[in-house]
Amino acid sequence: MFQWFNEPKINFMAPRRFFLALSTLGCLAGVYACVLLWQGKANLGTDFGAGALLRLSSEKSVQIDQVRQTLKGEGYPDAQIQEVSDETTKGSSFIIKLKYDQKNAVGSLGDEVVGVFNKTFSDAHFTLQGSDEVGPAVSEKLRNDAFKAFFLSMLGILIYIVWRFKRFEFGVAAVITTIHDVLVILGIVVLTHREFNLLQVTALLTLAGYSLNDTVVTFDRIRENMKFLVKDQTFLQLVNLSVNETLSRTINTSGTVFLTLLPLCIMGGDTLKDFAFTLLLGVVVGTYSSIFVASPILVEWDLISRPKPVPSPTGSK
After folding, report:
1. What contacts 134, CB < 8 A, 6 or more positions away?
2. Mean pLDDT of the chain
3. What domains can you pick out in the chain, each with its CATH number?
């Protein structure tokens, strides 16, 4: 493995309380984002808010950018458009996701969009192949299922880490770190008004697994080094040593994933850009948390749980 540093001796634990305080603020932003999501006040996609999925086709080819501009001009700037390639026909086929006013029926929305396209592209002859609705009841169920999936994944992580390391504090630290990562990323995504949909939930759960993997590698080195803890070495020094020993591996892994996602984030389509941005952000936050959140929690746990020295009686010799 390529080594970025030759036996690094960086004191990562010295500013640990500053970074823990900073991470707490990030988690509070994530909690606020959860409240916005629960109340339906965030920028929800058609998966979590009322919307329609339309399937349209035309007899002649139409560029997807022209379709996007037309919908934007008609008051649908957040429309998600996917072109479906079909070599057997000369025309174009599109799948379009739209947020819609719940007072209108989906069928009327589809007819309205087809009418706009036929007016703008008079020689293309658009037809509506089908439409599906995601109403308020369905979107609420999807939101609840997303929260349940996250809760169950955190419970599974706790059980796995406690079983893996045979130490309860390792499991708690891993769960707190994973929740921290999800909350920070969620806060940034929601508060920057990026659309939150099922694809974003997929990205968050993926990143929870990635963050856990990075944390487990560091914890495994800490556990191995605990076998060789010498008399004059504190647990804080051991954690510092372990983080330094896994530093090159952490940078190599995160850097490879980062460089893979960066082109997708820059050059990807409208649908993939937000997904890639969330993954890219998660790699950065996950790398940060494995060093400045997970390990400091173990250090603070050790300092709190360590038996306090019993003061000698007053006047004793």
Report:
1. 46, 47, 49, 50, 51, 52, 53, 142
2. 82
3. 16-42+138-305 (1.20.1640.10), 51-134 (3.30.70.2040)
